[in-house]
Write a structure and sequence with these properties.
Rossmann fold; alpha/beta; about 350 residues; globular; 2 domains; six-stranded mixed β-sheet
Length: about 350
């Protein structure tokens, strides 16, 4: 994997949008009247949810994956693609492989949600599994991906630490900006989850370009807050073993290409507990009828649980990054939520 840091511009994201428009439609930007009421906002302000659960793979990950694939076709030729993923990038790069007729080999934790295995296989990818519980000691995930690249002449894609992935993900932020600018709205707060940083980095570039006075705020699980620690240390901090029910937010650190973008545009990151995320999953289901995965609910949890000072003028945008959760896991999270004090 190359470690050279390459810049990503708004123009790169606009180019990526033209690529993505050939394959997928924009995820909806939904106004949440329930959140506006719950947060006690003035009538002039609105809350918007960018819901990537509506994409063909149930998360935002296919945007960066498609753009990565489109920009590596000459290098790929007949070679396969490999990547490691907790599940959502797996289905995203599998979808991209299906669209471009490329073989895809994915390294996934054996404990990943069944729905993520099923989605990834449905687009024709091959999956090889590892034990995530001991990966912090063995490094087997990265070893497996490297071996596939070396032994099968595969080209390895990063799920987040790549300028093409960042630009592809940034298309979602550009869509948000285009919609709200067209409606004459301003943005006071933009709230997005941070793990490896590919989602937030791309969106932050787009949001900062169109709403330069907005606060761009990261959200992380309490047990996986490497970005918050990185901001405090003013350098990338690697966690030895991130832990949370948010399986999609357990990167050890933010990517090399992501870090300078995040440091420039994202001045703060807040943390949310697993129990608060479970409460929010129930709240979102009760109010909106949406079953979202823990990683997707985390931004709404930050707003509902007073983790962010939402005072100001302008609209609030929350990114719901994905909705891929198994039935039994969702029921278990809702059951845990019902044992606590309900939100609202």
């Amino acid at each position: 994997m190359k470690s050279t840091i390459l810049p990503v511009s708004v123009e790169d994201i606009a180019d990526a949008q033209r690529v993505l428009q050939q394959h997928i439609s924009p995820a909806p930007l939904i106004r949440s009247y329930a959140l506006e009421k719950q947060l006690g906002l003035a009538a002039s302000r609105r809350v918007w949810i960018k819901d990537y659960g509506w994409t063909p793979v149930g998360s935002f990950k296919l945007m960066g994956a498609i753009h990565w694939m489109a920009n590596h076709l000459n290098e790929l030729k007949d070679r396969p693609v490999t990547a490691h993923s907790s599940g959502n990038f797996a289905s995203g790069i599998a979808f991209a492989g299906m669209r471009y007729g490329k073989r895809v080999i994915i390294v996934m934790p054996e404990s990943a949600p069944k729905v993520k295995f099923e989605l990834t296989r449905s687009f024709g990818a091959e999956i090889r599994t590892y034990d995530i519980a001991t990966d912090h000691l063995t490094g087997v995930r990265d070893k497996m991906a490297r071996e596939i690249a070396e032994c099968e002449n595969a080209l390895q894609a990063s799920p987040y630490d790549d300028p093409h992935v960042i630009a592809g993900n940034g298309v979602g932020g550009l869509e948000i900006a285009q919609t709200l600018v067209q409606e004459g709205r301003g943005v006071s707060h933009f709230v997005c989850a941070v793990s490896g940083g590919g989602l937030m980095a791309g969106h932050a570039i787009s949001i900062a370009a169109h709403f330069p006075r907005s606060r761009v705020i990261g959200v992380e699980p309490e047990g996986a807050d490497d970005f918050r620690q990185s901001l405090a240390a003013n350098q990338r901090v690697r966690l030895p073993k991130p832990a949370s029910i948010c399986d999609g937010l357990l990167s050890y650190d933010v990517g090399i290409n992501n870090w300078p973008i995040l440091r420039e545009h994202v001045r703060e990151s807040v943390v949310v507990s697993d129990s608060q995320i479970q409460q929010t999953m129930k709240w979102v289901y009760d109010r909106h009828g949406l079953r979202c995965e823990p990683s997707g609910a985390i931004t709404i949890a930050a707003a509902l649980c007073d983790k962010i000072d939402l005072k100001g003028e302008g609209d609030i945008v929350l990114v719901l990054s994905g909705r891929n959760v198994d039935d039994d896991a969702f029921d278990r999270h809702i059951g845990e939520a019902m044992k606590g004090t309900a939100i609202g």
